[in-house]
């Protein structure tokens, strides 16, 4: 009988700990949302850190259209000639399209699951243990993770645009070769 009561008491302590943890995560997420909104207001209405510039979108659209034209041409010729290149072009075009609809980075909204929230606040824990505030290094904020994600996203877009230009050069070479063989 006593074992049963001890088991209930132990699970209650774990339950309290999980409630405290979820409460802290909710508060951290609320702080993140506030900081994100403040930084978006500081940047201005047209400069959200998670959006692509108009020129980048235009470049992506133009490259995707050119890739689609190339894939249409490659699909119209015999399969053994350009099937591998057509598959690579289709894959690159699909990856670039994903960035236009916003699925290349974060999927729409921020949630507590897709934002890197701290498990505890280092400053508060240090002060609780009697530490000195001058000894602490500045913490990386959650917005730093968003700007880092933005940089990674832009780097991935640049690499995809570079790969697309290489694929288009290969396509042009293959097209010239096929046209010269047709003339001969």
Could you give a quick summary of the protein structure above?
The protein has 184 residues and is mostly helical. It is built from 5 helices and no strands.
Structure write-up:
Residues 1-21 are annotated as: Disordered. The protein is mostly helical and 184 residues long. It has one domain (2-183). It has helices at 2-43, 54-76, 79-100, 122-128, 142-183. It is elongated and about 85 Å long. The model has no long low-confidence stretch (mean pLDDT 74).
The secondary structure category is mainly alpha
Number of alpha- plus pi-helical segments = 5
Mean pLDDT: 74
| Poorly predicted runs | none
- The general outline is elongated
Largest sheet: none
Q: What is the N-to-C succession of helices and strands? A: HHHHH
Topology:
Layout: H1 2-43, H2 54-76, H3 79-100, H4 122-128, H5 142-183
Which keywords apply here?
184 residues; mainly alpha
């Amino acid at each position: 009988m006593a074992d049963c009561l001890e088991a209930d008491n132990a699970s209650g302590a774990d339950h309290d700990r999980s409630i405290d943890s979820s409460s802290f995560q909710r508060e951290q997420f609320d702080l993140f949302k506030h900081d994100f909104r403040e930084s978006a207001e500081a940047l201005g209405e047209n400069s959200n850190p998670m959006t692509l510039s108009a020129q980048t979108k235009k470049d992506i659209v133009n490259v995707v259209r050119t890739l689609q034209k190339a894939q249409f041409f490659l699909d119209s010729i015999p399969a053994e000639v350009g099937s591998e290149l057509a598959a690579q072009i289709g894959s690159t075009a699909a990856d670039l399209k994903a960035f236009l609809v916003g699925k290349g980075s974060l999927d729409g909204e921020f949630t507590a699951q897709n934002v890197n929230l701290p498990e505890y606040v280092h400053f508060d824990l240090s002060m609780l243990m009697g530490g000195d505030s001058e000894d602490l290094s500045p913490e990386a904020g959650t917005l730093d993770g968003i700007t880092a994600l933005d940089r990674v996203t832009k780097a991935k877009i640049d690499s995809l645009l570079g790969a697309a230009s290489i694929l288009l050069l290969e396509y042009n070479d293959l097209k010239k070769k096929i046209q010269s063989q047709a003339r001969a």
